[in-house]
Design goal:
single chain, elongated, alpha+beta, 3-stranded antiparallel sheet, 8-stranded antiparallel beta barrel
Length: 184
């Protein structure tokens, strides 16, 4: 009889122990030290807010990062560009001397995006999210394409003279060019 009680107690402790270990498993951060950070990353926080704001009124640290080098990054500020040194520890990357307050941190995500910890610099309540550019181009910067997509690209009605019976539309591409004038 005593042997049966001990088995039940050991069994219950085993179940409780596995339950405690299992509860913590879902809270563990995803391992990101193997995530490659290479290529162009554009400021999606800015682009998501541009449609209902004036571009100059949105506080922003930068518009794009270009990670072409192992230990540094090129940054597009819109009016100028610069190169800063970087260091990395796990899922955090440091941009050295990136602003007048010192270094800026980047938190890497496993989905090819990252969060720039820039709220102290911008004064906003949220930090900026950057997403890897999917464009295939040899252009130095990709941000212009994404800005065109948000603000310019699309189909526009062309106001025809009152004597015209046709309606005309103009299609503008991501590259800011006209596809064709379509008469209906």
């Amino acid at each position: 009889m005593k042997l049966g009680k001990y088995r039940i107690i050991v069994f219950l402790y085993s179940i409780i122990g596995l339950g405690i270990l299992g509860c913590g498993a879902g809270n563990r951060p995803v391992e990101t030290k193997n995530i490659e950070v290479h290529g162009h990353f554009v400021n999606m926080t800015f682009l998501d807010n541009i449609s209902d704001s004036l571009p100059g009124t949105i506080p922003v640290y930068c518009y794009e990062f270009n990670f072409s080098y192992k230990d540094s990054v090129d940054i597009n500020f819109g009016f100028e560009t610069a190169r800063f040194g970087t260091s990395r520890s796990g899922d955090t990357m440091i941009i050295k001397n990136a602003c007048n307050k010192g270094d800026l941190s980047i938190l890497l995500n496993p989905d090819s995006s990252f969060v720039l910890i820039d709220s102290a610099w911008t004064g906003l309540e949220v930090n900026s999210v950057f997403k890897k550019s999917e464009l295939i181009t040899k252009d130095e910067w990709h941000f212009d394409y994404y800005l065109n997509e948000q603000m310019i690209a699309g189909k526009y009605f062309v106001d025809a003279p009152p004597t015209s019976s046709q309606m005309s539309f103009l299609n503008l591409t991501l590259r800011g060019k006209s596809k064709a004038l379509i008469n209906l």
